Amino acid sequence: MTDTVLKLDNISKNFGPIKAADDINIEVGQTEFFALLGPSGSGKTTMLRMIAGLEKPDTGTISISGRDVTNEPPYRRGIGMVFQDFLLFPHKTVAENIMFPLKMQGASEKDKRENLQWVSNLVHLEGLEERYPHQLSGGQKQRVALARGLVSRPSLLLLDEPLANLDRELRKEMEVEIRRFQIELAIPFVYVTHNQEEAMTMSDRMAIMRDGKMEQVGEKFSLYHDPASQFVASFLGSPNAFEGVVSSVEEGIAQINWFGHSIRARAHDGLQPGDRAVCYVKSEKISMLESGGALTGVLRDIIFKGQYADYLVSLGDGHEITVSGAPMTGLKKGAPMHLDWDPGKADAFRAQGGAQ
Ligand SMILES: Nc1ncnc2c1ncn2[C@@H]1O[C@H](COP(=O)(O)OP(=O)(O)OP(=O)(O)O)[C@@H](O)[C@H]1O
Ligand SMILES: [Mg+2]
Questions:
Q1: What is the CATH number of domain 4-232?
Q2: Residue 264 predicted with pLDDT over 80
Q3: What's the pTM?
Q4: Which residue puts its alpha carbon closest to atom 25 of ligand 1?
Q5: Whole-angstrom Cα distance, residue 240 to residue 63?
Q6: Whole-angstrom Cα distance, residue 326 to residue 218?
Q7: In 2, 87, 259, 282, which residue has its Cα 20 to 30 A from 187's Cα atom?
């Protein structure tokens, strides 16, 4: 990467026996929105705290714009930070909250006022400057926290689950807004979340974290379409998972016997005939045919989602498949369904044990 702003090399951090970060290498470029996505306890916050300088890594180096900052205190790193619970001072006004980082840096009154005005316009807080946090809505508090993270014009902004406390409607709105700020400011954002939809909506690239390790990193589309492990495939959401025994593997495509049905998908993990495998097929990659197909069943229900619909197909043996597609009129519950997919767009991994 030619325009790298943030670079982590071989970062590890243990808390007693817990590996919160295990040999992490990340590069984030000047105009990138980078998401750290992973379940609770996977080490996302620890990573942000190390980047910010609030926690020291056991090994490895952190550089910002080519400068090694591993041993520098937080205020020398030029980084802004936004937290999940906002952390606003209740007895300070919006303006005082926002200007707090500048005050700590000893900025002049003029500087403080200019930057306050700039950032209030950016995040749309005009007119609220003299209010106190308890006089703000959840969304407005979030904007104040964002403004405070940006007011000192950092070269990098870190955000730790900033939308987790907002309701769904507001979250959707803020996802788009935060993305807009990032594009407008042209600085990298490193955004922590355990919500895959949020990461997909906002980021350019993402890293999937698991137990302190980076499971996979790359463009969001390539992670979604080409998951390298079962963890990533299941974490990025596939409603259809089939577990069975591999009967053959040819030209990279495994054939899996799943309750008498033959399921085909790309073979990962060096799958061989006789291995137990779990196969993920994304609902939008399944087509509905007139006849034939890998699976047949009847339409049990249609969940209308507006721009698309989920078709729930019952296979008659207690199993159900979800197919997503354009809403169609004319399809009635109980209609026979023939389903198939391109095996090159489904993924089979070695099963992690456990009964079928
Ligand atoms: N100060 C600490 N002392 C001991 N263990 C810690 C400390 N901070 C974090 N951990 C442990 O390190 C691991 C990673 O924690 P971290 O907070 O980074 O996870 P996370 O991915 O942010 O999780 P969440 O989504 O729940 O916020 C967890 O097992 C946690 O219990
Ligand atoms: Mg966390």
A1: 3.40.50.300
A2: yes
A3: 0.90
A4: 40
A5: 42
A6: 29
A7: 87
